[in-house]
TrEMBL record:
Record protein name field: N-acetyltransferase domain-containing protein
GO molecular function: acyltransferase activity, transferring groups other than amino-acyl groups
Pfam families recorded: Acetyltransf_1 (PF00583)
Lineage of producing organism: Bacteria, Bacillati, Bacillota, Bacilli, Lactobacillales
Organism this protein belongs to: Enterococcus durans
Alphabetized PANTHER family for the sequence: ACETYLTRANSFERASE (PTHR43420)
Length: 149
């Protein structure tokens, strides 16, 4: 079941799975909005987005490791896209950024309609104090994808 993200009771473990920088997460949670996927009283997935002047940006999508591969991430994305399309004003697109080695995330984003528009070479190396590894591979480049709404 989808519920609105409660900023007073954040699912930190999930949020930190997708972004290891707690300060950055706190900044975009403070200004953004989001949803959680809950089963009983347990949060299984979370999505956070920010409302910009001409676009929305999805800042964080995370699903509990035990629940990955069950469509929760896809449902969170589709629910958020529908919500943003219905509430848009001047915004004409949704952007999302991820690591270039995040193959499952890239596949999911493209499957729901996002297209790659740019790459920021060495973004993660330059902007995070500690190296980040995904599936044993050093995360270097950031990929930006967008979906027109």
């Amino acid at each position: 079941m989808f519920t609105t993200l409660d900023k007073q009771h954040l699912p930190w473990e999930l949020l930190l799975d997708a972004d290891p920088d707690k300060e950055k997460i706190q900044m975009y949670v403070d200004t953004g909005s989001g949803f959680v996927w809950q089963v009983a009283d347990e949060i299984k997935g979370v999505i956070v987005y920010d409302n910009r002047e001409t676009e929305y940006e999805i800042m964080n999508v995370a699903v509990a490791p035990s629940e990955q591969g069950r469509g929760i991430g896809r449902q969170l994305l589709l629910h958020t896209i529908k919500h943003l399309r219905e509430g848009k004003n001047a915004q004409n697109k949704i952007i999302i950024r991820t690591g270039s080695v995040s193959s499952a995330a890239l596949h999911l984003y493209k499957k729901v309609g996002f297209v790659e528009v740019s790459r920021d070479i060495d973004y993660f190396v330059k902007n995070y104090p500690e190296p980040i590894y995904e599936d044993g591979e050093l995360l270097r480049d950031q990929v930006t994808l967008e979906l027109m709404i």
